Every structure is written in C-alpha cells, then in structure tokens.
C-alpha cells in the first residue's frame, strides 16, 4: 500500500497557517473543529511550497520556556523549518520509517514540490490494522478450506 492510497481514502485536505500568524491563532486552528495535531506553514497561500510545520508538540515545548508570552509569538518563531515529507508513491513502510526515525506524528505529502496532502501516524496505524485484519481473514479462510 502507498501513501496515495491513504489520501484517496481520507482526502487531500491540509490545514495550513501563515508564518506571520500568531501562536494564539494557530492554537485556535489546531483546537478545531476539526481538532488536528499540526499545521503546515505555506506562505504562498496556494500550497505550492512547504515553509515549515507547527504542531501541538512544538507549542507545548515552547510554552515551557516562554509561558503565556508564547501566544503573542508568530508561527515562524515556533515552527519546525526542516520539514520531513513523503511522496504519494512512498510505501506505508517507508512513511512509518520516516515517522519513527524523526519522531514526527505528521508527514506532509509532497508531489513534484507541491503540497498534496498530509498523513498522520493515526492514518498509518488505521490502514495497517485494516491490512492485518484482511490478511487474518484470508489465512482463516485458507485454513477452513483445507480442513
């Protein structure tokens, strides 16, 4: 299974922020609805590029050092600038490897430099569980057919 298969199921909606938005604005967007875990920062407004990503974790970690003043900072002050991305053609195994290696829960999906979606660890786990259920059913049917 590929990343594109997950996007086909969940859709290509990506919640974004601008680097000059305040953290208060970003936190409101993260809280939802819908509640989400990360915003891709794309200043061009057209999803042509990924400038950064800001997650709940990024905000909580900065809260420890900046306190309430954090809310007045900009997304650019807090966002992760080195964004790990995947391709729609990457396998789920490759995507899980990236998430594990970099300890990220969200991966923007980029195709030919353009942001085309976002997957989360929850999306990957859900898909993997569905695959395992199907495999178990096939094995059960093979066993029952042979006895």
Automatic annotation (TrEMBL):
Keyword Ligase tagged: no
Keywords from the named record: CBS domain
Annotated SUPFAM superfamilies: CBS-domain pair
SMART domains attached to this UniProt entry: CBS (SM00116)
Entries under CDD domains matching the protein: CBS_pair_bac_euk
Entry keyword annotation includes Transferase: no
Domain CBS intervals: 79-134
InterPro entries assigned: CBS_dom (IPR000644), CBS_dom_sf (IPR046342), CBSX3_CBS_dom (IPR044725), Diverse_CBS-Domain (IPR051257)
Protein name according to UniProt: CBS domain protein
Organism from which the protein derives: Pseudonocardia alni (Amycolata alni)
């Amino acid at each position: 299974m590929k990343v594109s298969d997950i996007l086909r199921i969940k859709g290509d909606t990506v919640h974004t922020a601008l680097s000059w938005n305040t953290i208060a604005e970003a936190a409101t967007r993260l809280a939802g609805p819908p509640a989400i875990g990360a915003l891709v920062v794309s200043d061009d407004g057209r999803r042509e590029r990924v400038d950064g990503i800001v997650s709940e974790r990024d905000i909580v970690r900065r809260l420890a050092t900046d306190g309430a003043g954090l809310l007045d900072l900009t997304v650019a002050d807090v966002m992760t600038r080195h964004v790990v991305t995947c391709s729609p053609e990457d396998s789920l195994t490759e995507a899980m490897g990236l998430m594990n290696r970099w300890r990220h829960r969200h991966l923007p999906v980029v195709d030919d430099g353009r942001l085309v979606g976002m997957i989360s660890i929850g999306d990957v786990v859900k898909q993997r569980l569905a695959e395992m259920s199907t495999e178990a059913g096939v094995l059960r049917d093979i066993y029952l057919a042979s006895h």
